[in-house]
Amino acid sequence: MPASSQSVPALHHERDNVLENAFARLPRPQRVLDLGRPLVPTKMSLMQAQTRLNPDVHSAVLSPPVRPPAPALDPRSSPSTPPSHLLSPPINATTISSGPSSPRKHLTASGYWVADSKETGRITLGKFVQDGVDWVVRAQQRQPTLVMVKRHKRNAGIHEKDMLERIQHDNIVKLNRAILKGEDVHLEVEYCRFTLREVLHVHLKLAERQIQYIAQSVFQALSYLIRSGIAHNAVALKSIRISVPDMRIVLCNYIPSWYCTPSNRPVDDFQTATLQTSDSSSNHDLADLGLVLLECMEGRPLSPTKRTIQYVKEQRALNKVFGINHPEPWSGCKQLIDFLDELFNAEKSTDAKISRPHQFVIGSTLCNGECLRPYAELITFECFTLWTPDS
Q: Bias category Low complexity: which stretches (predicted)?
């Protein structure tokens, strides 16, 4: 027993020596913890040590960046003529975009004019007629959104272009550019294919939530126009559109639709949106907004006899909900009814209406444009043939 017990430790010791010698021939990273192992200095440690030895030398001097040598200047060249590499403008990273280069602007004071020969990067997808207006849908290369283009006669197109240049608001259609082609002006605007008139032709009816979003959007657009001294004079279902893809409500049609196509009207009889507006004309725009909201409540456009301020006031005096055929779903919408009463109130000034707006259009429960997305999808399925000319 004693002899065998002494042979076992000797065997273990010999095996440990064999393993240690094997690993010693191939050092592993774990041996870094061995305090007896010599440390190999790194490049950074050598640089830090040199900096400590010479504190007057900055660490950046120890490893200067490699730069290409500057071209030698010709002593025979004139001092007033710097070399070509100094004349080139510096590259500004903030001006680089992933899209195509913008076309050269037309030599006019306006930044929206584009030369006819510079229409690059646009692909025509198709055409459609909507309320008597010919539209062209185009795609922009390397851009996710579409654009719409309509053709005007020269005077009318310049009038609407000048009007849209003055106004910049989220609820007013955005003008991208204007193209002058002979006696015609082509206006390119953001893609807002669907009108509020088409929304009323789907089987899903608008509720108070959607009407509140429409009222708030158009009221903000009209308030902005009134403060800018502009009267729209054509607030209707066909002049209120839904932009895609963000589902914003935008106000359009700043000239009559009949002037977008040839007609027998007088050449200068085209102005709808006007400047230097009076309080009565602005109040008329707000009353037209009230008629649009009544049509949304009715679920269809009102007949010409019912779409008058006088008829609405007479029905309201008879304690009726503004003369709509099915008032039962709206009898409990007190804020909506009060807001309509304020829009139709001719005794209250326009300034009072927009400076102290009703709670219905400034409430905290307002929804976003997603509430109209189901209606936009249904228009595609149910109203793709609804291109009726203006009556």
A: 73-90
CATH of the domain at 229: 1.10.510.10
Work out the mean pLDDT of the chain and round it to a whole number.
75
d(CA 41, CA 45): 6
Asked if residue 234 belongs to a domain, the reply is yes
Q: Residue 329 belongs to what domain range?
A: 113-382
pTM, full prediction: 0.66
pLDDT digits (tens, 9 = 90+) for 43-78: 677 777 766 655 554 444 444 444 555 455 444 444
- φ, ψ dihedrals at 340, nearest 5°: -65, -40
Residue 262 lies in a domain: yes
Q: What's the pLDDT tens digit per position in 147-157?
A: 999 988 888 88
User: Tokens for 79?
Assistant: 């001092």
Do 137 and 146 touch, CB atoms closer than 8 A? yes
Structural domain total, the chain: 1
Q: Hey, which bits of the chain come out as E strands?
A: 113-114, 122-130, 133-140, 146-153, 175-181, 184-190, 194-195, 230-231, 240-242, 249-251, 274-275
Tokens of 56: 């007057």
Decide: helix, strand or coil at residue 370: helix
For residue 180 the two structure tokens come to: 């002058």
Burial 89-123 (b: 16+ CB within 10 A, else e): eeeeeeeeeeeeeebeebeeeeebbbeeeebebbe
Q: Determine the Cα–Cα distance for residues 350 and 361; give it in Å rounded to an integer.
A: 16
**Does 325 score more than 80 pLDDT?**
yes
CA distance between the termini of the chain: 120
pLDDT band at 111 (very low <50, low <70, confident <90, very high): low
Task: Answer whether residue 76 is part of any domain.
Answer: no
